[in-house]
Write a structure and sequence with these properties.
38% helix; alpha+beta; five-stranded mixed β-sheet; 10 helices; 228 residues; globular; two-stranded antiparallel sheet
Length: 228
Amino acid sequence: MKLEKITDQSRRRYEDACGTAHALEILGERWALLIMRELMLGPKRFGDLRASLPGLSANVLTQRLEGLEAYGVLKRRKLPPPASVQVYELTEWGLDAEGIIKTMGFWAARSPDHDPSLPLSPVSLMMSFRTMFDADKARGADLTLEFRLGDEVFTCVVRDGELTNGRGEAERPDAVITGTPEPIAGIVYGDVDPADMVAGGALKIEGDMDAVRRFAAFFELPEKASVS
C-alpha cells in the first residue's frame, strides 16, 4: 500500500508517523479530550457543554468543536421538532476514544497530586463509574440506581458483574439519588455513608439505602503510585 503524505499548514503537526503522535495532534489541544468526555453519553448543545466545563470560554469551545469536527471526531446535528436545536455528538470513531479516556483517568488517579475532591461534571461521574468498576466485587449483584443531577438524569445497572449506564430514567430503580456529583463521589470513593449525606442535606435518596451502599462497594480508586 502506498503511503500518502497529508499536509495542512493550519494544523500543528509533529511530523511523526507514530499513531500516538497523530492522536496528540487530534486530542492534544487544551479542553479537546474533556469535550469528548462530555459527549460520551450522548449529544449536547453548545450551552450545555459550556455549563459542564465552566473554565472553558465560548471562543475556545468554538475552536475546539470546529477542530474535532474537521478531524471527523464529532459532528453537528439538528434535533427534530419540537426541540429544533443544534447539538454536537461524537461520531462512531469518536466514541471509540472511550478506552483512551478511561485508561487516562485510571492512570492519573494514581498520581499523588490527584485531588478527587475537586468538582465533577455529571458525565465525568458516570465515566468514573465505568472506569473504577470492580467486576469481581459485583458478582451476583442485581441493582438499578437512578441519578438526578440537575437537569441530567442517568441510570446505572449492575447485573452479574457488569455495569451499564447511560442517560434516561430507570424502570423500577432500587433507589433514586438526587443531588450533585461531589457528594455522590464522596459515597462511592470516600467511604462516606449515604445516610450522613442525606442527614446533612447534600443528597436526597428515595428507595433502598442499602442498595446505594452495595453499589458504592463496587468501586475503588487505585493505589497511589510511588514516584520516588
